[in-house]
Amino acid sequence: MLVLGIETSCDETSVAILEDGRRILVNLVYSQADLHARYGGVVPEAASRDHLRKLPALALEALAQAGVSWGDLGLVGVTYGPGLIGPLLVGVSYAAGVALARGIPLVGVNHLAAHLFALRLRDPPVEPPFLGLIVSGGHTLLVAVSQWGEYRVVGGTRDDAAGEALDKFGRLLGLPYPAGPHIDALAQEGDPQRIPFPRPMLESGLDMSFAGLKTAAVYWLREHPGAPLPDLCASFLEAVVEVLVEKALRAAKRFQLRRIVVAGGVAANRRLREAFPARAAERGVEVFFPPPELCTDNAATVAACAHHRYTVLGRSDPLSLAPDANLPLHGWR
Fold it and tell me: Rounded to whole angstroms, what are the CA distances from 120 to 56, 60, 286, 308?
């Protein structure tokens, strides 16, 4: 079966074609980062219009690169939440149109579940049970996954997501949007112990908070205007990574899971990839990351999740499928 995947939940327009749920024929991602950089963050209305402009052409380009036609497709999967409602509506409407025109099933996909399916597309794949740490610009969640389609959210951020905190910190430093990659690069040259940024809620439960860390950075910058940029980046990033790692390891222990998978845009972060496996090994836990190209929003993971929902769980959706900006992962199948 060939699955057409569509992802438009935020500021990446992505179209992929997947064969039999595992083999990626093509996975095209068009980033709107340059469009939103002038504003220092994503502007939903501008994002929606850009998705509308780019999506049809990107779908045709994906078919051409994969060497297949519309008639070869057997299923269309699309992100219908969570995300920005305008961008979601563009993707869902286009996917429903394809399903109607070709007479093939439409399968809606939870954006957060799709991030986890990136681990199924890696070589070798990682299968449940595991603890999932989904960490991106908009989400930071700890998820106990007993099997594909069984998601139990056991912890998360109470305010800013980790990626959001990095972007806001980068804005304070005058770094381009998105700031995460720039902070990661600068941090390699800095001292992560130079600045004593706090580790909010480190010793309490499984929930996280990053808004206080950002506020602490604001006050530090006011009092130390000449602090070296690499040290600032290294110290702030180290605080974020330490909280993520400790919370994930604590959750894995509580739910007796020996494997942790890390997914989402921040999973591409060099420091997180370096520190997490080393600290987890000390506690007898394995940590797995997707390939960097499958960390950010992309349609290949959407197609993989849609294929599983349809072929294994027997699920499909009506053409009237409505986007849900606040679609929960807990209990979603």
Answer: 28, 26, 16, 11
For residue 122, which phi and psi values (nearest 5 degrees)? -75, 165
Q: Are 30 and 299 in contact (CB under 8 A)?
A: no
Check pLDDT > 90 for residue 38. Answer: no
Bridge partners (DSSP) listed for residue 288:
261
Counting residues of the chain whose pLDDT is more than 70, the rounded percentage is 100
Distance of CA 255 to CAs 2, 242, 262, Å?
36, 20, 17
How far apart (Å, rounded) are the C-alpha atoms in residues 131 and 307?
Answer: 22
* C-alpha distances out from residue 239 to 174, 179, 289, Å: 20, 16, 20
Is the pTM higher than 0.85? The answer reads yes
Rounded (10°) CA dihedral 123, 126, 131, 132: 40
Q: What is the pLDDT of residues 107-147, one digit of tens each?
A: 999 999 999 999 999 999 999 999 999 999 899 999 999 99
Structure token digits, residue 183: 């902070």
Domains of the chain: 2-116+295-311 (3.30.420.40), 129-289 (3.30.420.40)
Spatial neighbors of 175 by CB under 8 A, at least 6 apart, are 182, 183
